Amino acid sequence: MRRDASTPAGTVHRLTIDSRVLRDNLLRDPTTRIIDVYIPAGTKPDGLPLLVDLVGFTAGGPAHTNWKNFAENVPERLDRLIGSGAMRPVVVAFPDCFTKLGGNQYINSAGTGRWADFLLEEGVPFVEDRFRCGGAGRRGVFGKSSGGYGSITHALLYPDFWSAVACHSGDMAFELCYLPEFPRLLRAIAKAGGSIEKWVSDVVAAPKMKDGDLHDLMTLAMCATYDPDPEAPFGIRLPVDMQTCELIAERWKNWTAWDPVLLAESRGRGLAKLKALYIDCGHVDQYDLVYGARRLHRVLERLGVAHVYEEFPDDHTAVDYRMDKSLPILAKALS
């Protein structure tokens, strides 16, 4: 919903790409993917920086270009920021990376798919070739929640590809944000006779998904992401004992290898290559992600990595307004 009808409206182009790297994915998800691309009003995309929006769990990129009640969608937000002069013009891509398990974390996984390769080898080059935008030193990535996780993890793993990054309320400090979910998940699976396959199949096929089911599905998606078993249904294996909820050390070690706080200890110095790094989180985030954000901030300070870190008086829900802070920083750094 546009807040200012006088602001010139940019154009959203809908592209379709048939992915090679997603072929034969374990979940049998579609390999043909939509990428919506925003071009600011009154500009040609040639030579503009490119930002890539990684959406949170349960969504796909086109969800951010859809009409939104009582608030701006992302293109409308960009129209306002760019039209008012608060932000420099950029091209923004919105790739659809949804999966049967409700989403992914934008990393390569034998369970959920090669999503990092999809972005780096296919999606981003496809957009850049089509609109002659972005390129080395002119690419940025941003996202919230799972998208925030994807953004900061891509920054840590691929700092030569991305040059500006914003992480809003990203998943980190795994023992705080993920482990508390397992007791409820085990109770749900027990009601399905102890079968993860049956529980997932029933929930996905149900005419309506309950909030609790959605959270449990997200936990199972993380299992298929961080420590997948390609021989198991949906690639899922748990890091806890199904009867006692005791942590299985070997399994959990594979999970924590993907925790941004720990990744930063070994890969954090590479972030110095970035032109801009923005991290924020609400200080009453209901998933306790603010504690992981503080830990990451502390690691980066110790390593001497320049970044902007902010906390704000809100929780995890409906915080897209934080893009007003981050996107102008990324656009300026890439321009």
Structural summary, described in words:
The chain has 335 residues and is an alpha/beta fold. The chain folds into two domains: 11-172 and 259-334, Alpha/Beta hydrolase fold, catalytic domain (Rossmann fold, 3-Layer(aba) Sandwich), CATH 3.40.50; 176-256, no CATH class. Helices cover 36% and strands 16% of the residues. The strands form two sheets. Strands 1-2-4-3-7-8-9-10 form an eight-stranded mixed beta sheet, with helices on both faces. Strands 5-6 form a two-stranded antiparallel ribbon. The two termini are 28 Å apart. The relative contact order is 0.15.
Please tag this protein with its features.
335 residues, alpha/beta, Rossmann fold, eight-stranded mixed sheet, two-stranded antiparallel ribbon
Secondary-structure topology with pairs:
Blueprint: E1 11-18, E2 32-39, E3 50-54, H1 74-83, E4 91-95, E5 108-109, E6 113-114, H2 115-131, E7 139-144, H3 146-157, E8 164-168, H4 174-177, H5 182-191, H6 196-205, H7 211-226, H8 249-256, H9 260-267, E9 276-282, H10 289-303, E10 308-312, H11 323-334
Parallel strand pairs: 3-4, 3-7, 7-8, 8-9, 9-10
Antiparallel strand pairs: 1-2, 2-4, 5-6
